[in-house]
């Protein structure tokens, strides 16, 4: 995911959105401003409140702004999420969805030794949602697998492994049943693997993978898979390490990249300064690595780790009593 295009200054599109999106974004920007990097932020409107105010949940100016930026930070949308975030991913052709699954201290993770990345194809597979109209018998959905898109995502996964000192990539499919579509995925997986002779490979069926994630989660480094399987396995991954407040993600395309927490606008706690900003912060750390700012990313992540080691300094979802702003201030102190 990291590029080497470290620049003197970056233009960042910031779309806080609804509910706790606003609060976790502010906390994250406060920490980013404490790093020695020159960011120019341009703020964009989107989401439920934007719809109420302007009549559209995703104004075209916001999309243009994202297009013209080096990267985008996105908070959360509410009920308009499908019209906002799903639309941005499609419009920007963000083909790779990256979800790191990592165990942090003081969290409900199944094992302390979990640290892997799910690389999910974001543009085709089952989620083209091409469901023919009902038939006499029921309904039919099409699953599209193209050589080009699968080669692109598999190559992305191997390249990510190479750049991040990972030693193994696991391809996940169901080629024993879906012989043509997933047969093709598996074939391309091993073709691409030949370009990366230093990286070990294995492939598993998706159902077995679902079990191995529970029985031996430490054994995974990078998982690459098609759209629907990636969606399901990444929520299983979130369950492994416990808690929406800690799960970041990245959407990467040829023309841009967007970084967002996996959680939504959390209307139940919005406006109370209670939200855990760490998922948004970890998303911004993925952005720093994407921009090639690895030293700052390491500094930021270590500061978060220090705070995670002290249960008193955490927000209530992690058993503490700190507010969003107190947690952010503590992280800034630890930088
Ligand atoms: P949610 O992720 O907003 O909240 C689920 C539960 O987790 C809530 O109890 C919430 O308080 C808690 N939670 C989530 N993030 C937290 C954080 N950072 N710190 C502490 N607690 C946290 O999901 P929900 O309730 O299903 O959806 C609420 C709204 O968000 C809906 O309108 C939905 O459409 C939208 N949504 C938007 C997404 C996006 O913009 N990417 C993703 C998921 C939901
Ligand atoms: Mg999902």
What does this structure look like?
The chain has 335 residues and is an alpha/beta fold. It is 40% helix and 22% strand. The chain has helices at 20-32, 48-54, 60-67, 81-91, 147-163, 181-193, 206-215, 227-241, 278-290, 294-308, 324-334, and strands spanning 9-17, 38-43, 71-76, 96-102, 115-121, 125-132, 140-144, 168-173, 200-205, 222-225, 248-252, 257-261. Helix 1 packs parallel to helix 11 (324-334), helix 5 (147-163) runs parallel beside helix 6 and helix 7 runs parallel beside helix 8 (227-241). The longest helix has 17 residues, at 147-163. It is globular and about 55 Å long. The two termini are 23 Å apart. The model has no long low-confidence stretch (mean pLDDT 94). The structure holds 1,4-dihydronicotinamide adenine dinucleotide (NAI) and magnesium ion. The site of 1,4-dihydronicotinamide adenine dinucleotide has 22 residues, from helix 1 and helix 4. 1,4-dihydronicotinamide adenine dinucleotide binds at residues 20, 24, 76-79, 81, 85, 244-245, 260, 263-269, 275-276, 279, 317.
């Amino acid at each position: 995911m990291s590029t080497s295009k470290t620049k003197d200054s970056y233009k960042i599109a910031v779309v806080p959105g609804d509910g706790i999106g606003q609060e976790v974004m502010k906390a994250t920007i406060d920490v980013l401003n404490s790093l020695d990097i020159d960011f120019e932020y341009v703020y964009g409107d989107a989401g439920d409140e934007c719809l109420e105010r302007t009549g559209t949940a995703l104004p075209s100016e916001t999309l243009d702004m994202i297009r013209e930026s080096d990267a985008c930070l996105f908070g959360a949308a509410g009920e308009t999420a499908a019209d906002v975030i799903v639309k941005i991913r499609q419009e920007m052709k963000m083909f790779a969805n990256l979800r790191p699954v990592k165990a942090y201290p003081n969290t409900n993770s199944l094992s302390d030794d979990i640290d892997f990345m799910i690389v999910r194809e974001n543009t085709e597979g089952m989620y083209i949602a091409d469901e023919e109209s009902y038939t006499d018998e029921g309904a039919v959905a099409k699953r599209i697998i193209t050589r080009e898109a699968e080669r692109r995502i598999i190559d992305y996964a191997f390249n990510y492994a190479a750049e991040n000192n990972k030693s193994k990539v696991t391809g996940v499919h169901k080629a024993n049943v879906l012989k043509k579509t997933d047969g093709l995925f598996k074939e391309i997986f091993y073709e691409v693997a030949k370009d990366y002779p230093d990286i070990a490979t294995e492939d598993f069926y998706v159902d077995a993978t679902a079990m191995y994630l529970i029985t031996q989660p430490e054994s995974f480094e990078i998982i690459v898979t098609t759209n629907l399987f990636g969606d399901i396995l990444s929520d299983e991954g979130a369950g492994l390490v416990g808690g929406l407040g800690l799960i970041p993600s990245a959407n990467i395309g040829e023309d841009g990249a967007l970084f967002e927490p996996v959680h939504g606008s959390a209307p139940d706690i919005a406006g109370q300064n209670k939200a855990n900003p760490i998922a948004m912060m970890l998303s911004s750390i993925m952005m720093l690595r994407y921009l090639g700012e690895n030293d700052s990313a390491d500094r930021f992540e270590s500061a978060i780790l220090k705070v995670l080691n002290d249960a008193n300094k955490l927000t209530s979802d992690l058993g503490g009593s700190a507010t969003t702003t107190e947690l952010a201030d503590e992280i800034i102190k630890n930088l």
